[in-house]
Write a structure and sequence with these properties.
The complex is a heterotrimer of chains A (about 230), B (about 300) and C (about 300).
Chain A: E1 5-16, E2 22-34, E3 39-43, H1 50-58, E4 65-72, E5 75-78, H2 84-93, E6 95-98, H3 110-120, H4 125-138, H5 155-167, E7 173-177, H6 185-200, E8 204-208, H7 212-218, E9 221-224
Parallel strand pairs in A: 3-8, 3-9, 6-7, 7-8
Antiparallel strand pairs in A: 1-2, 1-4, 4-5
Chain B: H1 18-33, E1 39-40, H2 54-63, E2 69-74, H3 81-93, E3 97-98, E4 107-111, E5 124-128, H4 142-150, H5 155-168, E6 179-181, E7 185-187, H6 197-200, E8 206-211, E9 216-220, E10 226-228, E11 255-259, E12 266-270, H7 273-281
Parallel strand pairs in B: 2-3, 2-4, 4-5, 5-8
Antiparallel strand pairs in B: 1-9, 6-7, 6-10, 8-9, 11-12
Chain C: E1 15-16, H1 35-38, E2 44-53, E3 56-66, E4 71-75, H2 82-89, E5 97-103, E6 109-111, H3 117-126, E7 128-131, H4 135-138, H5 145-155, H6 161-174, H7 191-203, E8 209-213, H8 221-238, E9 241-246, H9 249-255, E10 258-263, E11 266-272, H10 273-278, H11 283-290
Parallel strand pairs in C: 1-11, 4-9, 4-10, 7-8, 8-9
Antiparallel strand pairs in C: 2-3, 2-5, 5-6, 10-11
Helix pairs in contact in C: 5-6, 5-7, 6-7
Classes of the chains: A alpha/beta (about 230), B alpha/beta (about 300), C alpha/beta (about 300).
């Protein structure tokens, strides 16, 4: 099977114009690829740039140098140079994302939040909501919350809405940014099982997990991000 | 027109000077060429106040010749002050013959009615128009209404009819009911009752409209389609009357309500006095007609 | 790609979020699965649009493509030229230079400023919408809510009162206005209701492109949230392309896919909305993002 994602020689820095234009390098010469049916885990101490890498792959952060090649609808696309609407199409069809925090929209129910990625891909809203409800049930989200907007939910509840939202589609690539940070052991186990099912379905996963035990349970491969730390001299 | 009858040394024939008449005739010709389109013209001060038919009088003065026979009606009647005065005016300044008979007239100047008797080829109906712009009360800016006419942007006209139905359950507009002329321009037929609208359609007579204060002339040439605006499910309907004319017994004509006393007594009679008189002369009698009521 | 030195130039090239080439060399375009993206063309294409007010710059050399179904937010402070740009690309304001091309429903690409006014007006009330900040600018305040929504239908030939009214009622429901308010005038509506009515009035003809000028400006925060949610839903359901001008980055984040940041009449940064907000590159964008108050 073709490699779904190749990150090649990617560098990223922030230029802080409000701080006199100081340039803060984040990562340099990042290169790795992930394979279908495997879960690769970015590891390293906090602040080393794991989250930035994930965000570049999702198109959320700009890339200074290098290529991020994604197999999108049968062709390779360089996300580092893609136009905004191409990135949108990739997000709709190819790359799913479970973020650490939920950006809640006023007045939209948890079910609709979780169902949205399916609806965007053309599934009828009823079917999509039914699928979201199944995931909520599996993640033990109390049913009385389902129809409520998640803005007032606890961290763990919001995270489960986020997980459902990320796992509801069959995107071939799924990014996981600390999906279990606020979950208890039982729900963590559910997430581990769900990751296993994604792998069995041939999905390529790329994640950040702080919890070492969980990392052991899901990782097929560890990518050490400390190797991409910027050279002091540069 | 260079006729200068003796004894009228102080006035040109038909009151207006020849260059003015020529200017108005040009406007009329343009109006005829573009049915329903409002042509601006340099309206003159006339020896009567605005609202008394200065537009109609200028049109009549520009088209009348010594051989014409003039009839003037006001709300259908030949005998109101306004009608009598205008008739007398042209008798004096143009020395034309006048009549009250619809069939005999070559030019009929009218305020707010179309005669019941069908007009024929060669006759000209001249309307006195107070406000020529049908969109005026919906869109006060003249710059915008002219653009709307130019672009055939008439949705607003139906908004007004929609509002009528929403408020009253039916189209409550009963006079100055908007029409579309020859499938192009929306036109205000002047404040005639909508009862008269069907008479404008494919009329054999030439219809000219003059608005003196507003300085506009427009026209409906003979054999031109004039369609009253409506909705499919609320089609245009003419006013209906429950009883025939109390004097001549006519049905299917436009009736005026006449209050007889201060105890609620009333009668409905033909608004077209000529039509009513002719019928009575022919022996028709309504419910309240007696020998004494004639004339 | 932006490097540090660029920021000193008075007119830096706009930062196109992700890379400088429009056609990335690596895209093997006609792969088996992607007709939607590969064959689609922009709906509207503005290029080199400038508007000068005398010597003052309204907007300068702006080029922007709007694709079907995408929401583009134009942000910047007052006087940055965002409303001028909106007016220029929506034909409400003739640009001094530049062209605006639009892909009509029949697939033809037309230069908007070479179109006749009749056709442009037709386009504006069928295929386009324009939502004003002040609902009074986009509504007829003295006709009923139903007629406000129905006007575009009537303007494009709808002539069945019952159907027009039913459609209007349906749209009132979709913008969360109780159907029994259908005969009330917007004068009697709250600010939020008026804005929702304005949206219904614009969407009733199923437009493909809607322009919005600060649609939530001047509304209470709670009313704003409701309106935003409603807009989000409608935009997704109807697959609308939207160009929304706002100074509120939270509104841009919630509504838009793509963002255009303007300053002094020029575009200084464009890109995916979350990319621009989470990784702003131009100095001014960084200032703008860092100035957001956290509730």
């Amino acid at each position: 099977m073709a490699v779904p994602l190749i990150v090649s020689d990617v560098s990223k820095s922030f230029t802080m114009h409000l701080r006199g234009g100081v340039r803060i390098p984040v990562v340099e010469a990042v290169h790795f690829s992930i394979e279908a049916g495997q879960c690769a885990v970015l590891s390293g101490p906090s602040g080393v740039g794991k989250s930035s890498i994930l965000k570049m792959v999702y198109g959320n952060y700009a890339v200074d140098v290098g290529q991020i090649l994604i197999r999108h609808n049968g062709a390779l696309l360089d996300l580092a140079r893609a136009e905004a609407r191409q990135v949108m199409a990739v997000r709709r069809d190819t790359i799913g994302y479970v973020s650490q925090f939920l950006r809640a929209v006023p007045r939209v129910s948890a079910l609709d939040v979780a169902a949205e990625p399916l609806v965007q891909r053309g599934t009828d809203p009823e079917t999509a909501c039914r699928r979201a409800a199944e995931l909520f049930a599996r993640l033990n989200l109390p049913e009385k919350l389902w129809e409520l907007p998640p803005a007032t939910f606890s961290g763990g509840e919001q995270q489960r809405v986020n997980i459902a939202r990320g796992f509801i589609t069959d995107h071939p690539v799924l990014l996981l940014d600390e999906p279990t940070a606020s979950l208890d052991a039982a729900n963590r186990a559910v997430v581990v099982a769900m990751i296993g099912e994604k792998k069995a379905d041939g999905v390529a996963l790329l994640g950040i997990f702080h919890d070492a035990e969980l990392r052991e349970a899901v990782a097929d491969r560890i990518i050490d991000v400390t190797g991409f730390a910027p050279q002091k001299a540069a | 027109m260079t006729v200068q009858p003796t004894g009228l040394a102080d006035y040109n024939f038909a009151y207006l000077d020849e260059p003015t008449k020529r200017m108005i005739r040009r406007a009329i010709l343009k109006a005829i060429a573009i049915p329903g389109y409002q042509v601006p013209f340099a309206s003159r001060e006339m020896p009567m106040p605005y609202g008394w038919g200065t537009g109609g009088v200028q049109v009549t003065a520009s088209i009348i010749g010594p051989d014409d026979t003039l009839k003037v009606i006001d709300q259908g009647a030949d005998d109101t002050t306004n009608a009598v005065s205008i008739r007398a005016f042209f008798a004096k300044v143009a020395e034309v013959s006048t009549t009250t008979s619809t069939a005999e007239a070559t030019i009929i100047q009218t305020r707010h009615r179309i005669p019941e008797e069908t007009l024929g080829e060669g006759q000209v109906l001249v309307y006195q128009v107070p406000i020529p712009e049908p969109l005026r009360f919906l869109e006060p800016r003249e710059t915008e209404t002219r653009k709307m006419h130019a672009l055939e942007d008439y949705g607003l006209m139906h908004v007004k009819l929609y509002e009528d139905i929403a408020r009253n359950g039916h189209i409550a507009t009963t006079y100055a009911y908007p029409v579309k002329v020859e499938g192009r321009y929306v036109m205000d037929p002047s404040p005639t009752p909508k009862f008269d609208n069907p008479k404008m359609d494919q009329s054999e007579a030439l219809q000219l409209f003059g608005a003196g204060r507003e300085k506009r002339i427009y026209a409906v040439p003979p054999y031109t389609s004039v369609v009253s605006l409506d909705f499919e499910d609320y089609p245009f309907e003419v006013n209906r009357f429950d009883e025939p004319c109390a004097l001549c017994g006519a049905e299917g004509v436009y009736l005026d309500e006449v209050v007889l006393d201060d105890r609620g007594g009333r009668m409905f009679v033909c608004s077209d006095t000529d039509h009513c008189e002719k019928r009575r002369a022919a022996g028709h009698r309504g419910a309240m007609a007696s020998e004494g009521t004639l004339a | 790609m932006m490097t540090q030195g660029d920021s000193v130039s008075p007119h830096p090239e706009p930062i196109e979020g992700r890379g400088e080439t429009a056609n990335p060399p690596l895209r093997q375009a006609q792969g088996d699965g992607l007709p939607a993206l590969a064959e689609e063309k922009p709906l509207l294409s503005a290029s080199g649009v400038s508007k000068f007010y005398g010597s003052r710059i309204g907007c300068e050399d702006v080029s922007i493509d709007i694709w079907p179904g995408e929401v583009v937010a134009v942000v910047g402070e007052s006087g940055s030229g965002k409303t001028t740009l909106l007016n220029c690309i929506s034909t409400r304001l003739m640009p001094t230079t530049g062209t605006v091309a639009y892909r009509m429903r029949d697939g033809q690409i037309r230069d908007l400023y070479r179109m006749g006014e009749a056709e442009r007006r037709f386009l504006m009330r069928t295929d386009w919408g324009f939502v004003h900040q002040n609902p009074a600018d986009g509504l007829r305040m003295t006709v009923s809510a139903g007629a406000n929504v129905g006007e575009r239908l009537m303007a494009t030939g709808a002539r069945h009162y019952g159907n027009i009214r039913a459609t209007a009622g349906d749209w009132l429901g979709r913008v969360e206005i109780a159907e029994d308010r259908i005969d009330d005038q917007p004068r009697a509506f709250s600010g939020g209701m008026r804005q929702r009515l304005q949206i219904a009035r614009n969407l009733v003809t199923g437009p493909r492109l809607v322009f919005m000028d600060e649609p939530t400006g001047g509304l209470d925060v709670s009313v704003q949230a409701r309106l935003l949610d409603l807009l989000r839903g409608l935009v997704t359901d109807l697959g609308l392309a939207v160009v929304v001008v706002t100074h509120d980055l939270a509104v841009a984040r919630l509504l838009s896919h793509r963002m255009v940041v303007m300053k002094d009449g020029r575009v200084i940064e464009t890109g995916l909305t979350d990319r621009v907000l989470d990784d702003p590159r131009a100095p001014y964008t960084q200032l703008l993002v860092s100035s957001i108050l956290q509730a």
